[in-house]
Structure to design on (566 residues):
């Protein structure tokens, strides 16, 4: 949130998603509208769709990969929301809402082994060369290679999240603490913001590392004068325009803000905002399948690039490049792209990062860019 | 009605919105063609897409079936698809243009556009037409001002047109004008 944080709790429902119940979930969302509670703030589902589920929703098959059997998606129905702003307000549909200070003991952060990367530079180079060949053949115009850092650890997500917010607050940050897993994220990227009949997406393409000599103005001129970054960004803008055009009324899709720079603790991002007016009678599923998984974290064109990625990646992306957010009783929603995220499950923490192979990139540079992206999260341990 | 054949590209729906200014547009995947609708259309458009024309034999069949009977427009891969079926060879480029804005120029061979007129256009292509290319009917009518790569074709007799660049891209300055010319041809 812009000016603070929303904390959701007292979940009356937890839905673990898979290919077979996803349509039921979308039906359930429609029912939210009918049983609109007096407490509008809680009449929503909040949670995430994993990468594989999003692929399957658009009929892209993911071959068998190494995975930790983490659920493909989880949504919760909260009954209490605590708004942390200058003042703290609590709204709840329950009479006895949760006592925040209950004595449940959660894990402390404990590191049992150092972070290891799943693809070393040599393997990375091989994949990079394969994808560069695919680029020259025209099978893809841009593709993102995903690498993962993993360690053995338990984490205390609450303290880790606040630590992260001190160094790397971002508009799409979130944290989930459940009994058997937790997620801590400083995602910077808004994939969908739907309010009434309007929908906005804010793709990021372009990352610049911060140094002593950079500032936001210099970053802007770097992106503007860098042909590689500009072309990569252009492609994502046209791609997101097209994704929005699938679900928006004719000639309503407009670039509301083209190519601006957002500043973070360790880096700068090159961002655009695109907006459209939704067609009538769309379902939530229509909107989600048109926009997800987010183009900027996959590459372009989407279907062909997803197929190339899925054939190459031996390890499940899990929640990485999935989407976290909420859908409420008005069928409004907001989802991010799940990047810059730590997931802890079965005693292991995982951080996935990716950077784009376009025609002018080099393997070593992209490999290093991946590390820059993971660094602020690795430093939390 | 305009029948837009989508080669599963991530730019197709920009094209749909652009075309919608002139007529009803029906979009389908290249492997799910609605034979009745396509038979009733006034214009068939081949979208851009990944890969090479060889990968889309269904689209080649449609081209051959409707050539001379309906107006046809090809964009990017669609442009190459037309040339491929007109004995052109589609080859890899040394320098690749993805998300690139180029200046292109209209040649004297063009009937629709004024010779020497120039446009700034968006390009997304790894492949190009191998030249020299000779055809009595399919003429190259625009070229990139820098690299001389073929950027447009016109076949006046059969009303077949194609652009290697993307008129629907935000990088193309006169996309509406360019499409309008095709629609009124």
């Amino acid at each position: 949130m812009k000016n603070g944080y929303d904390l959701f709790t007292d979940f009356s429902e937890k839905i673990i998603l898979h290919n077979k119940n996803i349509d039921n979930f979308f039906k359930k969302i429609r029912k939210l509208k009918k049983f609109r509670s007096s407490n509008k703030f809680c009449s929503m589902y909040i949670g995430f769709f994993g990468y594989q589920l999003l692929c399957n929703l658009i009929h892209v098959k993911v071959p068998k990969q190494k995975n930790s059997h983490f659920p493909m998606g989880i949504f919760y129905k909260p009954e209490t929301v605590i708004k942390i702003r200058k003042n703290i307000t609590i709204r709840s549909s329950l009479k006895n809402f949760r006592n925040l200070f209950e004595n449940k003991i959660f894990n402390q952060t404990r590191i049992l082994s150092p972070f290891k990367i799943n693809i070393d530079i040599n393997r990375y180079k091989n994949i990079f060369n394969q994808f560069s060949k695919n680029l020259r053949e025209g099978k893809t115009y841009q593709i993102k290679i995903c690498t993962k850092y993993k360690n053995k650890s338990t984490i205390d997500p609450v303290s880790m999240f606040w630590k992260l917010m001190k160094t790397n607050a971002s508009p799409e940050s979130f944290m989930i603490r459940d009994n058997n897993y937790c997620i801590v994220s400083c995602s910077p990227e808004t994939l969908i913001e739907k309010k009434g009949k309007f929908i906005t997406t804010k793709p990021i393409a372009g990352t610049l590392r911060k140094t002593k000599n950079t500032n936001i103005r210099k970053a802007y001129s770097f992106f503007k004068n860098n042909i590689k970054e500009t072309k990569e960004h252009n492609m994502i803008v046209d791609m997101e325009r097209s994704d929005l055009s699938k679900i928006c009324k004719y000639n309503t899709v407009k670039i509301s803000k083209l190519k601006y720079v957002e500043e973070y603790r360790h880096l700068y991002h090159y961002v655009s905002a695109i907006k459209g007016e939704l067609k009538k009678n769309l379902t939530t599923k229509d909107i989600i399948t048109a926009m997800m998984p987010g183009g900027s974290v996959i590459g372009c064109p989407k279907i062909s690039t997803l197929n190339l990625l899925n054939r190459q990646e031996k390890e499940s992306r899990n929640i990485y490049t999935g989407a976290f957010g909420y859908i409420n009783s008005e069928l409004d929603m907001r989802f991010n792209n799940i990047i810059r995220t730590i997931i802890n499950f079965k005693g292991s923490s995982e951080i996935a990062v990716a950077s784009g192979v376009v025609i002018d990139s080099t393997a070593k540079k992209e490999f290093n860019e991946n590390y820059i992206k993971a660094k602020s999260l690795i430093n939390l341990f | 009605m305009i029948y837009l054949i989508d080669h599963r590209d991530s730019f197709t729906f920009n094209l749909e919105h652009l075309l919608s200014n002139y007529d009803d547009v029906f979009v389908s995947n290249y492997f799910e063609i609605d034979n009745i609708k396509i038979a009733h259309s006034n214009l068939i458009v081949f979208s851009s897409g990944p890969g090479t024309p060889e990968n889309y034999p269904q689209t080649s069949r449609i081209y051959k079936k409707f050539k001379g009977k309906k107006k046809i427009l090809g964009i990017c891969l669609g442009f190459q698809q037309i040339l491929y079926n007109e004995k052109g060879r589609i080859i890899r480029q040394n320098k690749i243009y993805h998300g690139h804005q180029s200046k292109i120029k209209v040649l004297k061979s063009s009937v629709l556009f004024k010779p020497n007129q120039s446009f700034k256009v968006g390009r997304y292509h790894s492949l190009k037409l191998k030249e020299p290319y000779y055809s009595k009917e399919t003429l190259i009518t625009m070229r990139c001002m820098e690299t001389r790569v073929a950027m447009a074709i016109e076949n006046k007799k059969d009303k077949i047109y194609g652009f290697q660049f993307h008129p629907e891209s935000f990088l193309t300055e006169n996309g509406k004008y360019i499409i309008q010319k095709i629609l009124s041809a």
